[in-house]
Amino acid sequence: MEVNDTDVRRERCDPDRPAHPGVFLTREAGKSDHQPAGLSVDFPVSVVLPAGGTGERTGLRTPKQFCSLLGRPLISYTVQAFERVSWIQSVVVVVAEENMDLMTDVVQRFRHTKVRAVPGGSTRHRSIWNGVLALGEGEGEGAVVIVHDAVRPFVDEDLLYKIATAAKEHGAAGAIRPLVSTVIATTSEGYLDHSLERAKYRASEMPQGFTYDVISRAYQRCSESDFEFGTECLHLALQYCGTNAKLIQGPPTLWKVTYKRDLAAAESIIKDALSRSACVITGGSASGAALAGALREAVGALGTELEVVPDLRGENARCLAKEGNFILVSVGPSRPSEVEALLTELEAANRALLHPLVVIWVHMSDSDELSVSGRAAAVMDLSSAAKLRNILLYGIQLHPSKDAERWERSVSRVAELTSVLIRDRSPALVGQLLQA
Ligand SMILES: Nc1ccn([C@@H]2O[C@H](COP(=O)(O)OP(=O)(O)OP(=O)(O)O)[C@@H](O)[C@H]2O)c(=O)n1
Ligand SMILES: O=C(CO)[C@H](O)[C@H](O)COP(=O)(O)O
What we know:
- This protein folds into two domains: about 1-270, Spore Coat Polysaccharide Biosynthesis Protein SpsA, Chain A, CATH 3.90.550.10; about 275-435, Flavodoxin domain (Rossmann fold, 3-Layer(aba) Sandwich), CATH 3.40.50.360.
- It has 14 helices and 17 strands.
- By secondary structure, it is of the alpha/beta class.
- Ribulose-5-phosphate binds near residues 149, 204, 205, 206 and 232.
């Protein structure tokens, strides 16, 4: 993945770089692009997201929670994962004093609605305790508090529900995963002292849930040494409240972004999720529909499901709300106005707030009033305007052929290019007219 390059990663992580350049990145407050799972709880649930660390282990200047993944800081993805859950009432994000403005900016730019930022402490435990204190007894009484590292962006509603309900019942609950490696103890001279029986142990992950009473009592009673060196909230609940946490096996996606490579891995997971489906707009012509049909099979085989519609009018407008990737098929003379119209519709539908949209203009014509260089210039010009709307515009020129074999080859090249563009969202190819 190209983001392994240090300079590129530094550039992507620069919080001063505008993550989204346009003013068109809007989304109705409180709404999200995820389907609710239909779960509900009959007690208040609040969340504390510790985000006050410096991310030393990444080796980057920017704390990892503010590093940008596809133009959006990691913390915004984590916040969104909680905000989209209807039964979660409020999210307290704990950030270092010097990053308060940055966090306020993230909240405003990405229209987060349930979030409040409070100052962090010198260790993770101190930050979490600040977050719990910020919830306050009034908000917290009879409530469950979910604690989740801000740098674990992939958490789903189903697990949050299991953690919240188990915490309500048992006082504390936490997610676990099987150990990948065996845990060993070493002597001070660097020799093996003993090893633990791997099958008996689990890795403790996040999220964790507590009744407000348990988590606040645990922090009130714990020692300075716990605050300074402790790594486990469930341990504090056991030691200071006698509460044995219920443990729940979570999915592998719970991992914590710790090293620089984890940022690239997280971006890759986000890209995968965004490339699962796309909408092909054929313009209503028979040859456009034939190409779309062939593409649907070929692109489907590469992992992206295509929905084919003649236009985005009436019922078909649902694609505007549903999809993040669009393939516009033009047959005959180039009409940049068709692309402009699609960009305007996407902007009006407010679909580019949280992720950049991909639009691929597939142009199929031999004879055209525009020369190849004229078409390439048109794609480049349109792409600059699209970028301001957080839309990545790419062009593909398809040369039709009456020879069945050549036609099939061209279609499979369009399918491959389409898949790569949707999957990789390469900034370097934005505005290019690729040949199929
Ligand atoms: N004083 C601190 C230290 C950590 N955290 C948060 O705790 C979570 C998990 O900690 P970790 O992965 O260790 O983050 P860092 O401490 O930032 O990383 P490092 O140890 O590499 O510096 C992160 O969301 C981090 O921001 C916090 O809120 N306050
Ligand atoms: O897994 C966890 C709790 O059980 C924490 O995420 C973990 O302890 C954080 O530790 P560190 O700050 O050292 O990465």
